[in-house]
Each structure stands twice: as C-alpha cells, then as structure tokens.
Amino acid sequence: NAGVTQTPKFQVLKTGQSMTLQCAQDMNHEYMSWYRQDPGMGLRLIHYSVGAGITDQGEVPNGYNVSRSTTEDFPLRLLSAAPSQTSVYFCASSRVSGGYGYTFGSGTRLTVV
Amino acid sequence: AQTVTQSQPEMSVQEAETVTLSCTYDTSESDYYLFWYKQPPSRQMILVIRQEAYKQQNATENRFSVNFQKAAKSFSLKISDSQLGDAAMYFCAYRSGNRDDKIIFGKGTRLHILP
To answer: What are the C-alpha distances in Å from A98 to residues B1, B4, B88, B95, B100?
Structure first.
C-alpha cells in the first residue's frame, strides 16, 4: 500500500545511546518532516525537508539530525539519547504546493531510560 | 508567526448527539489552508477535513463539517450523530499557501463519546 512507512514502532534506549528512526514514502512527495508528540504539547516540528539534499530546522531541533539523500527517505538520528527525548515521533510527507495535508506514518514510541 | 489555538483540552458528547470543537488561528496571510486531523487510540493521524481559505463555502465530509469564519479567524469542527468510533484526539492545523511551508498544529482536543 502507498504511504509513509516508519520504523520501528517501539524502542527503548538507554541514556547516551544513539539510534536512527527510519521513514520512507512512495508517493513521490517533495516535502517530508519529523514531529514529536508529547502530552499537552500537540505536535512540534523537529526537522523538515523540501526535497533531496535540502533540510531545515523546525521548532525543537536540538539533539536530532536529519539528511535527505533521496526523495523517498528521511531518517531521523538521535545523537545521544536523553530522557527528555522520550516521546512519540511521527514522520509525515506531502506535496510542497497546493495546500495539501500531510500523510503520516504510524509513529514510533520512544522511551529513554 | 502563525499560531493555532484549541481552547478545549477535553470534551464529552452523548452518542448520536452533535458536538462542536473550537479552533482559532492567527495569521497575516490571505492564502492558507486549514485542516482537522483525528488521532484515535491506534495513534494513527487521519485527515478528517480540509478548508481552502479563499473558498467561502464550508467544507463537509459526511458527518463532519466545519464553520469557517475567516474574519474572526475561527475554524470549528462539527460532528453530527456522534459515534463511539469518533472518540479520539482532534487536532486543528494551519498551512500557509506559500510553497514549502510547514503545517502548524494546535495542542488538540480529546473527545469522549458517552454511550
């Protein structure tokens, strides 16, 4: 099925560990983004990309890295996990123009202990 | 900067009744789009309805409709004939008409359906 594939669905990390959350879409969307969702905070933008080779910071970028080597993939790297990064992470994609809504991945629940 | 405000953290409605979720936004732009997303307990984010700012007609999708008041910068969601499956977190969202711009989300309203 076409859409946004996000892996893993669940992950537990120890403080200081690094990991990569994977995101892939097969809709040829130019725009891809990562959000984190915390209780009472809504969805906050971490990083986004408007095309291969182009990335930019969102509202809460510290502690995260991204790259966009292809149109399809947009991985999110946690450099040194901290308990404050315990959250649910969503990858989303869309066309860049035309006011389209996002197509979301199914989310990753990350716990840092 | 644009902001989206949902002033009702939680709401409850009796099954089969009608409920309205409120959303206000702040922008100086004239070209933009507004959305309502539903997030059920499964965590999946589902687009419920989309409104183009330049269209005066309110968007509808089956039992879901919006009341778009552009001058008041208000974008409420009405759910008619509420069903148990409507229980979810609902997010209001804004996207500029500028190319490349991101979507800004409100903090959400959790809707409970009472049987």
So the answer is: 20, 20, 28, 10, 10
Chain A positions in Cβ-Cβ contact with residue B106 (cut-off 8 Å): 42
Q: Mutate one of A1, A10, A43 to test the B interface: name it (highest B CB count within 10 A).
A: A43
- Interchain CB distance below 8 Å, A96 and B105: no
Tokens of A82: 């901290």
pLDDT at A1 exceeding the cut of 80: no
pLDDT above 90 (res B102): no
User: What DSSP state is assigned to residue A73?
Assistant: B
The nearest alpha carbon in chain B to A98 belongs to: B97
Burial A77-96 (b: 16+ CB within 10 A, else e): ebeebeeebbbbbbbbbbee
